[in-house]
């Protein structure tokens, strides 16, 4: 049986596979992603919340592939910017460097750490092959936007996201450390029991 990860973001695929492997799911299912299905076009992310976009992606990819699909919608929510970039996080610039530069320039006049607070948010949804949502979850990681990038791990805004409980940037944390406490790691842990139950039932009822 295959489980489809509803994303083309290689960073997300890497992190989600690592958590699913750690939970013993690699023996139960073959984990594939939109990177393995280049002919399937991406849906337009028209939702105004992370949960809406996660639903939309899970439903779309499940129907397009005929596989159960696990979708993540995530982003960075900066308090001093009224929640921007939020659901537009992946569209805040042409690449990670440009997105980070834009965010830092928008926060240029914001001096104290307390006013540079932010969090990563993640919503997850699991759809069956008919596109019905069978489980959903959320996760969050609080931090502070640093003044310059640092670190080589992770992806996206990780180099400018300072995590107080680690006292380092998210891009300086080892992958297994990030997966344990990140918004995505927490959302995945929260959906795991229902994902395992779904896989068990699907396997028992498969012809
Ligand atoms: P999505 O594909 O619409 O969910 O966009 C998610 C975007 O949010 C990514 O392209 C990144 O810019 C940002 N993002 C989400 N999760 C992370 C993370 O764990 N680290 C850094 N940036 C992230």
Written account of the structure:
This protein has 207 residues and is α/β, with parallel strands linked by helices. It has helices spanning 10-22, 50-65, 96-106, 175-181, 183-205, and strands at 2-5, 30-33, 69-78, 117-127, 133-145, 161-163, 168-169. Strands 2-1-3-4-5-6-7 form a 7-stranded mixed beta sheet. A hairpin with a 4-residue loop joins β6 and β7 (168-169). 38% of the residues are buried. The mean pLDDT is 95. Bound molecules: inosinic acid (IMP).
Q: Work out the number of β strands.
A: 7
Structural class: alpha/beta
Uncertain parts: none
Bound molecules: inosinic acid
Q: How much strand content do the residues show?
A: 15-25%
What is the typical, i.e. mean, pLDDT? Answer: 95
| Cα shape | globular
One letter per element, helices H and strands E, the order comes to: EHEHEHEEEEHH
Helix content: 25-40%
The profile of the biggest β sheet is:
7 strands, mixed
Q: Helix count?
A: 5
Radius of gyration: 17 Å
Outline of the structure:
The chain is built from five helices and seven strands, in the order βαβαβαββββαα. The protein is α/β, with parallel strands linked by helices and 207 residues long.
Q: Mind sketching the topology for me?
A:
Elements: E1 2-5, H1 10-22, E2 30-33, H2 50-65, E3 69-78, H3 96-106, E4 117-127, E5 133-145, E6 161-163, E7 168-169, H4 175-181, H5 183-205
Parallel strand pairs: 1-2, 1-3
Antiparallel strand pairs: 3-4, 4-5, 5-6, 6-7
Helix pairs in contact: 1-5, 4-5
The chain binds inosinic acid (IMP).
List keywords for this structure.
207 residues, 7-stranded mixed sheet, 5 helices, 34% helix, binds inosinic acid
């Amino acid at each position: 049986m295959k489980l489809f990860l509803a994303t083309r973001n290689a960073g997300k695929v890497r992190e989600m596979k690592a958590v699913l492997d750690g939970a013993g799911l690699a023996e139960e299912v073959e984990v594939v992603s939109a990177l393995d299905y280049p002919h399937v076009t991406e849906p337009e992310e028209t939702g105004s919340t992370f949960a809406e976009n996660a639903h939309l992606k899970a439903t779309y990819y499940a129907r397009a592939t005929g596989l159960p699909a696990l979708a993540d919608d995530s982003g960075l929510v900066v308090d001093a910017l009224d929640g921007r970039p939020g659901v537009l996080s992946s569209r805040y610039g042409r690449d990670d460097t440009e997105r980070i530069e834009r965010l830092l320039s928008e926060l240029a006049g914001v001096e104290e750490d307390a006013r540079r607070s932010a969090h990563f948010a993640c919503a997850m949804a699991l759809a069956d092959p008919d596109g019905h949502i069978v489980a959903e979850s959320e996760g969050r990681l609080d931090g502070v936007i640093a003044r310059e990038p640092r670190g080589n791990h992770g992806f996206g805004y990780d180099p400018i996201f300072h995590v107080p409980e680690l006292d380092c940037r998210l891009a300086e944390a080892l992958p297994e450390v990030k997966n344990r406490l990140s918004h995505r790691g927490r959302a995945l842990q929260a959906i795991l029991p229902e994902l395992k139950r779904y896989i068990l039932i699907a396997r028992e009822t498969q012809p």
